[in-house]
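@channel sequence for tomorrow's demo:
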Amino acid sequence: MEFFKKLFEPKVQPEELYKVTTNEEGVKVEHPKIEPSQIRWDKLHTIILVNTDEGPALSDVWLKLIDDNGSCSIPQGNIGFEQVYDIVSKYDGFDFDNFVKSMATASNAQFLLWAKKTGNALS
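structure tokens (generated this afternoon):
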């Protein structure tokens, strides 16, 4: 009987183990087996979409936010991915074409979605 119970009980997807918290200061990403990471909105300078070839068993699309002090990554499929995407996709210069290209890629690749402009150069 235990066999059938395990067979039919819902499985937790890897993306569900991440806790993503957003507020007016930034984003924090937590996972039970990984050290927490966070970025500040006012220090954010780069947004990348990272594709891996690890799906579907593991998360294979990650939204990576990089600030002056580090980075945090959010797996697609986590509710926080959509929340953060809704915020950053409104940034001036957000590259929607690269987002679409990423969704059509099943291999290891990175797609620049946004970079903070400083003067005439990108940081």
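heads up for whoever presents: The first strand starts at residue 19 and ends at 22.
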